[in-house]
# Entry
Amino acid sequence: MSLGTNGFADKIIFRRNLSSTNLLARKLAVAGAEEGTVVVAKSQRAGRGRLGREWASPRGGLWFSIVLRPNISVAQSSGIVFVFSLAVAETLHGKYGLKARTKWPNDVLVGNKKICGILVETNSTGASINFSVVGVGLNANFRPESLPLPLRNVATSMEQELSRKVQLKKLLRAILDRVEKRYCQFLRQGISELLSEWKTYSGFLNHEVKVTDGSSSVHGLAVDVDEKGALILQLKDGTTKRVLVGDLFLSVDSSLINVPP
Ligand code: BTN
# Structure
């Protein structure tokens, strides 16, 4: 079924319930699915998050994955997450009037609460990519109370922010449209310009943050994200530190001040 994007997501597979859209998309990719194949589920039994975490996926959310076959190196694939988080932030802001902010490495926030997470899983041989599956989990038509307890205070949803439900098909079409534009830009021009635009939506740059990798944490001022996708922190002693993997937490008194164009 086509959603009317310009050919990018012509093949869209809808399922009522899946273990994970990323898993089905990956199976399809292994079996030769074309770039742009999309898998959407109304709910997921075993939604997958970053770093092996579970992703709560009740009905009402927009849970989908897309197969990409970019002709780029594995090193360059760190840019894919920015394509998607920028596309989601632009859609939430441009089409729904929400003050969406990107948060390194893979989140979109509204009012300091997570509304969307992105999971990029890349299958490669040596330095070349066979395919990437990009999963997008967007809290749309449910209230945060539908999420497991630990998430309720740190997550929000479109329904919560807009006090109404949204049409999921329209939302998906709008996101895929932005994704297609940003993905083409990324393949044509590289990461530089796209990353600059991503930064205009950032809700953490120039703020004091804590970054944890599970075993240790580091505090500092988030000063930049470089073209390899690393977070650059300025530490108290004036030195800088590049962080490649971790979870970023804003200091409690941080306010999100960057205003997107
Ligand atoms: C994260 O923030 O940890 C990333 C979450 C990604 C969740 C989405 S929901 C659709 C797709 N299918 C999955 O199993 N995970 C991604």
Notes: The chain has a mean pLDDT of 93. Helices lie at 21-30, 80-96, 149-152, 158-162, 168-189, 192-200. The pocket of biotin is lined by residues 20-22, 44, 47-50, 53, 55, 57, 63-65, 106, 117-119, 135-137 (CB under 6 Å).
